[in-house]
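Can anyone check this?
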Amino acid sequence: MGEKIHLQTPLSNEDTKRLKVGDSVLLSGIIYTGRDMVHRRFMETIQKGGDLPFDVKGQVLFYVGPAPARPGYPIGSCGPTTSYRMDKFTPMLYEKGLRGTIGKGKRNQAVRDAIKRYQGAYFVATGGVAALLCKSIKSAKIIAYEDLAAEAVRELVVDNFPVTVGNDCYGGDIFEEGIKRFGGTSK
């Protein structure tokens, strides 16, 4: 297993250009959360010419609906959500300057093309380790869409948040690489 790459958010083009599929990354800084309903609202806001609740340029969006925080903790368990549910909204966010997304599972071709075109990255967080992931989150606050409860947009301060590069800005795809290397199908 290779060395982990430490990255500080917001991410730059130089940051994403050094990433390759399969790289282990530790993210530190601020990341944002959002799932299905947040993405729908983002799309509606963009279509109406409005401003999103945070400047997406260089930012990373984590697909998660965290559990309520236990006393003394900033957030509860927070495992990644299946990413394909956001695929129809994601290319427009990369176009607006989003630099990365975090989730689980494959992305569609339109998202992979947007990642390549706008020099972004898709990070895979391991499902099933939600209680472990929350230990890398130092603070969490709702910044928009409080009515969505667990799905509200949160600003998270993370320290060494562990992810793996699933799609890089060169068109690489960890799921296709795995099939080539180990066999199987993409379905």
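Reply from J.R.: I decoded it. The longest helix spans residues 36-47.
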